[in-house]
Design brief:
6-stranded parallel beta sheet, disordered C terminus, Rossmann fold, alpha/beta
Length: 368
């Protein structure tokens, strides 16, 4: 069985798209004969991150990380750019190991929203971090194009999935709220732009599922909204099934896992035309994308719920795991060439278009 070590700063007890993606990836990869093990902040002394108390910052000792990276695993993948990811990157470079990375979160935009610092500074760090590897996996085509323009190299597409056994049309709660019901699901933090949704002049009711540091302020500013707190996957599926529209106001997500979860339950989507919704919803008819979020939310009410349900069938964790493992095979095949071999490749074969195009060709040949 192939053994893959994934180094990640995002891990339980966090509840977010990165953690859910990694957990589902590990389960689905077993079906392809691959066992994924994790190197997380829980393996080291860790402290809460300021303003994100549920996120642990690890004090990852170089010797301990190097020992794990140097163990008998077939590949190392670095999922995040925090202390654990940084230590794993350093160890891989010192040991000469092939490794891939993934770009999950728009930290430059998060930092800009929170501090006002220009995104160019954070992108310099991220470019330095990811370009040292043998491939960086990105969930959305629009984000891949943007990163390529910013100088990121060896970009590989890695989409996400949804558990269709959990997220499917189900018996909905007996809502006591006036309809139509507009739902937001996700973290309550400034970078998620939740106030843009709650500020909309919409009929019916606004429901908010999730928690985070912005919740007290949002509840104070928008007393007419209904804050439901953190929900389990099964509870979310029931909410998706009972709501009328999922409103996704974020401008900073790289994918938006809640989009496919909601669509799998037959819930149409209203979102801004930015990376994430553009790739996940696009022109499928499963939602409405517009800079006028109010108009999008109202228009989404008319969508037949069978359309988002059918579109969500394109996203599975099995396909996600297969794509992840294929990307590793591509990265390792190029690593074998060495620097001299890379220089012999035509220029087009080392840019993002080649790497993404190669994925598409492999999928077409396999009938996927």
């Amino acid at each position: 069985m192939t053994r893959i070590l994934v180094a990640t700063d995002a891990w339980r007890p966090q509840v977010n798209g990165v953690v859910r993606s990694l957990e589902n990836l590990a389960e689905a990869a077993l079906g392809f004969g691959a066992k994924i093990e994790f190197l997380t902040p829980r393996d080291f002394y860790h402290v809460p991150m300021p303003t994100y108390p549920e996120i642990d910052l690890a004090v990852a000792t170089p010797r301990a990380v190097a020992r794990r990276v140097g163990e008998d695993c077939d590949h190392v993948h670095i999922a995040t750019e925090g202390p654990v990811g940084l230590a794993a990157r350093r160890a891989c470079l010192r040991l000469g190991r092939c490794f891939t990375t993934s770009y999950h979160t728009r930290f430059p935009e998060y930092i800009q929203v929170r501090t006002g610092l220009p995104t160019s500074l954070a992108y310099c760090y991220l470019r330095w971090f990811h370009n040292a590897g043998d491939g960086v996996m990105v969930a959305a085509a629009s984000v891949a194009r943007e990163l390529s323009e910013r100088g990121f190299q060896r970009i590989l597409r890695w989409s996400r999935g949804v558990d269709h056994e959990v997220f499917r049309p189900a018996a909905s709660p007996l809502f006591e709220f006036p309809r139509p019901i507009f739902l937001y699901a996700g973290r309550l933090a400034v970078e998620k732009n939740v106030e843009a949704f709650l500020s909309l002049d919409l009929p019916g009711s606004k429901l908010v599922a999730g928690d985070g540091p912005a919740r007290p302020w949002l509840q104070q500013q928008f007393p007419n909204a209904h804050f439901l707190g953190m929900k389990t996957s099964a509870e979310l599926a029931a909410l998706y099934s009972g709501a009328d529209v999922l409103v996704f106001p974020s401008r900073t997500d790289t994918f938006g896992l809640v989009l496919v979860e909601a669509m799998a339950c037959g819930l149409p989507v209203a979102a801004l035309p930015v990376a994430g919704p553009l790739d996940v919803v696009g022109s499928s008819g499963a939602g409405v994308l517009s800079e006028d979020l109010r108009a999008a939310a109202l228009a989404a009410l008319a969508i037949d719920r069978r359309i988002p349900r059918a579109h969500a069938a394109n996203f599975t964790w099995r396909a996600c795991a297969r794509q992840f493992l294929d990307n590793i095979a591509i990265a390792r095949s190029v690593k074998v060439l060495g620097e001299a071999g890379r220089r012999r490749l035509a220029p087009r074969e080392t840019d993002a278009n080649f790497w993404m195009g190669r994925r598409s060709s492999r999928e077409k040949a396999a009938g996927r």
